[in-house]
């Protein structure tokens, strides 16, 4: 199979109902304080992986964690996975700092995230 490749899963976002309580649990689990800490997002960098806490359900009302595959060309990867049978849940958009994210739904209803850093 040809096409654009991924750089693996490096980001996992967890929807949370209480950001302060979740931050305490994840800080204890990971043994560190968060590197990003605001009222709308808390992020930890742990062993080469980014773990994010998103209050209020996050993008498109997330109901479970979403793993984000890091890609070089998000539009090309979106086209490939859509051609293979996925459907777009959230189109590619900039979330700040030139970072683009998108989500798709696989044939079984699983949400897959794509992330491209500029």
TrEMBL record:
<dbReference type="InterPro" id="IPR037523">
    <property type="entry name" value="VOC_core"/>
</dbReference>
<dbReference type="Pfam" id="PF00903">
    <property type="entry name" value="Glyoxalase"/>
</dbReference>
<dbReference type="InterPro" id="IPR052164">
    <property type="entry name" value="Anthracycline_SecMetBiosynth"/>
</dbReference>
<feature type="domain" description="VOC">
    <location>
        <begin position="8"/>
        <end position="117"/>
    </location>
</feature>
<protein>
    <submittedName>
        <fullName>VOC family protein</fullName>
    </submittedName>
</protein>
<dbReference type="InterPro" id="IPR004360">
    <property type="entry name" value="Glyas_Fos-R_dOase_dom"/>
</dbReference>
């Amino acid at each position: 199979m040809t096409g654009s490749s991924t750089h693996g899963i490096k980001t996992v976002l967890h929807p949370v109902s209480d950001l302060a309580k979740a931050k305490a649990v994840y800080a204890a689990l990971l043994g560190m304080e968060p590197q990003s800490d605001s009222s709308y997002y808390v992020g930890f960098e742990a062993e080469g992986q980014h773990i994010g806490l998103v209050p209020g359900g996050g993008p498109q009302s997330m109901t479970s964690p979403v793993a984000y595959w890091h890609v070089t060309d998000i539009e090309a990867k979106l086209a490939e996975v859509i051609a293979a049978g996925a459907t777009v849940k959230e189109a590619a958009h900039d979330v700040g700092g030139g970072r683009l994210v998108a989500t798709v739904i696989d044939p079984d209803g699983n949400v897959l995230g794509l992330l491209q850093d500029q």
